[in-house]
Design the sequence.
């Protein structure tokens, strides 16, 4: 399920569709419904995205049309995974995700730029800390009201946010040291900081 601010860049819609199709053949609208329920809360797929993904999987030989049924509008195609698709999704599931170390993230850049421009970098960290705490409260409420899948996803996000908070605290404690390593000049007397 999608959690704002915690989306995994490695999440592949195509691979996820293959996994859902391995469980059973489905129509495109069924894939969208199941995907949105399990992985897309707060960010449902667009139908165009569903059918363009299915077209790519079909062209790649990873899925096939399992049946066509007449409907009120256009004919409805049911898709099934092929043996190549099963192999592909098995390989994807077995691959570990690359841990993201966030070595040069935006927040670090903001702290350094705050120091270099004579702004109060502690304020930048305080604003970010407040935003992290706000999101953590929202995730804790969602976890309390959610099913097991929601609880696991919220735990994942909360643990990452807790690590971020530890970094924020450590960085706040080291701001003077960081400013010294950056050789931050004294603020210019004519410059007013916003």
Sequence:
């Amino acid at each position: 399920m999608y959690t704002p601010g915690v989306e995994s860049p490695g999440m592949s819609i195509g691979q996820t569709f293959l996994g859902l199709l391995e469980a059973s053949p489905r129509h495109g609208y069924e894939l969208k419904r199941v995907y949105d329920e399990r992985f897309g809360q707060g960010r449902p797929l667009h139908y165009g995205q569903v059918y363009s993904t299915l077209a790519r999987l079909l062209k790649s030989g990873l899925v096939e049309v399992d049946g066509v049924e007449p409907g009120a509008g256009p004919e409805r195609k049911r898709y099934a995974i092929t043996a190549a698709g099963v192999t592909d999704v098995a390989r994807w599931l077995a691959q570990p995700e690359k841990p993201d170390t966030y070595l040069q993230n935006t927040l670090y850049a903001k702290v350094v730029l705050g120091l270099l421009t004579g702004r109060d970098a502690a304020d930048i960290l305080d604003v970010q800390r407040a935003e992290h705490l706000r999101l953590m409260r929202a995730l804790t409420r969602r976890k309390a009201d959610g099913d097991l899948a929601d609880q696991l996803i919220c735990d994942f996000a909360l643990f990452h946010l807790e690590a971020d908070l530890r970094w924020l605290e450590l960085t706040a404690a080291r701001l003077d040291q960081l400013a010294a390593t950056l050789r931050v000049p004294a603020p210019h007397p004519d410059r007013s900081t916003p």
